[in-house]
Write a structure and sequence with these properties.
Helix content is 44%, strand content 17%. It is α/β, with parallel strands linked by helices. It has a domain of 119 residues: Rossmann fold (3-Layer(aba) Sandwich), CATH 3.40.50.300. The strands form 3 sheets. Strands 9-10-11-12-14-13 form a 6-stranded mixed beta sheet. Strands 2-3-4-1-5 form a 5-stranded parallel beta sheet, sandwiched between helices. Helix 8 packs across helix 14 and helix 14 packs antiparallel against helix 16. The two termini are 31 Å apart.
Length: 397
Amino acid sequence: MWIKRHIEALLRDRAATRPVVVLTGARQTGKTSLMRRLFPEHTFVTLDLPSEAEQAEGDPGSFLARHPPPLLVDEVQYAPGLFRHLKAAVDSRRDHAGAFLLTGSQPLALMKSVSESLAGRAAVVQLEPLSYAEAKAAHPTLSPEEFLVRGGFPELYGNRDIEARGFLQSYVATYLERDLRQILQVSRLSDFERFLRMAALRSAQLLNRADFARDVGVSGSTAGAWLAALEASHQIALVQPWYGNATVSLVKRPKLYLCDAGLAAFLAGVHSTEALRNSPLAGALWETLVCAELRRSQLNRHGGWQLHCWRDRAREADFLFHQAGAFRLADAKWTEQPRQRDAVALRKVAAQLPPESVPAMTIFCRTPNAYPLQADVDAAPLDGVSAWYGDGANSSP
């Protein structure tokens, strides 16, 4: 079954106005299926086929002559030599919007080629796993807890008979074998797999690189390189703290999140909703899920509000959005009924920001319906994230 994605409008807009559109993101997020469905008139070529990749890299001129635009090239990072010829093809017909559509699952190599050869010519769009709202539209009885444990990879919702645990186990193995061998020279993949599991256990926590390296048993430089690889391959996100305030006690370290809460739960050993409810990690995994929903809405709109966190010695807000001097604050709470003190905590952070600059404060929790907790603080369900941020719209929230 096809699951409609909120990012579809953005992709159509970019393809209607730019000669090249690059869709990147982690493996199994549905990049190829989405592009083929949105642009069926484009010739489709995948460089996963060694014969096609070999010609695209070794004889790109002949490759493009054999596959003229409009062209959709899948896994384009396997032929970096193709990009210089794409540049020449684009420059010869700059008025042909959407002539070349490219997808890639190794963003580090892909973006290096794009920045070197297609700067100013390509629109880059990032695709994340499914949002809860997208998955629930296809499966109306899906609960937030089920979605958290199962994760957001589209294949798991196109066919609900697929066992999530087995899928995620294979996903980790494929990621380690295919992507990491391309990005890093890892002598023992078991060491990196342990590192990945440690990242899952630390999801929704402030990142202390020195402690991380010590706990895993690797050098600081190795831990830094591995974290960079996880971020480059869209497995983790680092949410930076807000620095625009003179408070000297503000914590300057970013918060670490896995990009898919289901993958975080799997790596942490949480494989069912019952295990989730009984786990001491439930709060951190819920915050990981809320962060993924907020980031996805932001990416679907191609920017807009900047996502940060806030923490000083006495106050904390999980998420702070900023745009043009205005702020939105949000917390994630693993509860169905937030307490009044949760609202007070957000208001204390708001008091540190410029007067009248915080029009909205929200606590995302497991409540089935949104309701006001205090005059200026709302409690909202998980599927309220898209509406809160205005997902899919082209105007600012």
